[in-house]
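Person: At home tonight, work slowly through the protein below, taking as long as you need, and write a paragraph about the fold.
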Amino acid sequence: MSKESPVSEKTSSSSASTQEKTGPGQLANVLAEKQKIDTFALNTMGIELAQFLDSSPVPTFVIDSHHVITHWNKACEYVLGYSAASMVSTRNQWKAFYRDNRPVLADLVLSGDDIYIQKFYKNKFSSSQLIPGAYEAIDFFPDLHEHGLWLHFTAAPLYNQEGKIVGAIETLEDITERCDAENALRQAHSNLENLVKKRTLQLADINNKLEADIKQREAVENELVRRNTELTELNARLSMAQEQLLQSEKLASIGQLAAGVAHEINNPIGYIFSNFTTLENYIKDLFCIIHTYETAESHIADASIRRELATIKEEKELPFLKEDIPELVQQSREGIERVRKIVQDLKDFSRVDSQQEWQWANLHQGIDSTLNIVNNEIKYKADVIKEYGDIPDIECLASQINQVIMNLVVNASHAIGEERGKITIRTSRDDELERVTIEVTDNGSGIPKENLNRIFDPFFTTKPIGKGTGLGLSLSYGIIQKHAGNISVSSEIGKGTSFLISLPVRHVDDSPNDEGAQT
């Protein structure tokens, strides 16, 4: 700008001098000459500015007040991949950064509106501390270069001598390495924290396992010493053990315990429920009396008595009591009804009233009661899906069928690993054979092929010591045989196991079938 003033002053004085010596025709020629000189000076400044920007290693471009690119230096060409020839004199500055047409920061600076800038850059920009009206921002541009670039860019307005904005200049800085280093450092820090937590948990888990292993080894050693003295006698009696166990499974089953609990709880729950109904009526009567007293309170002539009554009502929080007592009564009634429901499920599960006689029973009710009893065993491990078909009642020993369902469902929950699993119970009918089927399927760990032929053997178990006796499936097998039914199993490692039970609708007093369990 410093070179323009002398040229202008010289031209001005020359024009004045020429005007004094010439007429109107010559004046027009002088003015045209002056315009050529001014245009030459402006072009010279533009060339000098372009040379200055091209020599700068900082990617920089300039736009005028009409958002037209006037300068696009070589550093811009290198970083953004667009040549100056293709960009200058266009409004295509957005193409270097975005896929869709939208203003860049230099375009927004011309508006001077923070709200307009916030619309496009949200919280990614800040005002410059050095230059009024200038802004800076950091953003990631995925389309630049092979893997994208992080750029720090600043934009500032350009003013003429009168202080009017005539354009804007924007500079860019590639900070990809810095951002990648910061992200890598954050990721490394996060990974380190996670590794420390993981190692800490692993150490705690190993310590717990070591303690448990020591206790388990001690228990195993003690048990081995005890069993060593009984081994000879046990081998001689082993052939008789299955028959004796099949006759006495009721003594060890949860059904017997359920029957006792249901019987003991049912009577006190009955009179508690009866007394509670009476208590509700008493409370209603008391509230009626209190309401009558409150109505008559305003007719008491003695003011001191009225004040005393008001004080007592306030101290005892009578309005709150009138509101809270019915809620407490309702909640207590719901609790008692839940206890009655649990007792009923225990009775349904154990068939305490059936005297263990062959009776017609609804299998779906028995399955539901059984699931309610073992709910605490499976609710943290798996979701139970019931796909009940249209089946008739069957003649059976209901409590023993419930025992079989319980064994299969509990075993299925034990076969499911750390992730939550699914246990599906399906029922269907075969009118032609007059039989019904029950299928219990899980998506657990599965049973190895070499063990499938042994799972119904007494004392055979794949569970850890202390976790199972190996009698559940053996007892279930005997119960199904007693009902002239069949039980079969299919399994695949890693996908799950399915038990299929087939039962006749009507009990037949024949010896157990010869087919047995099919695997």
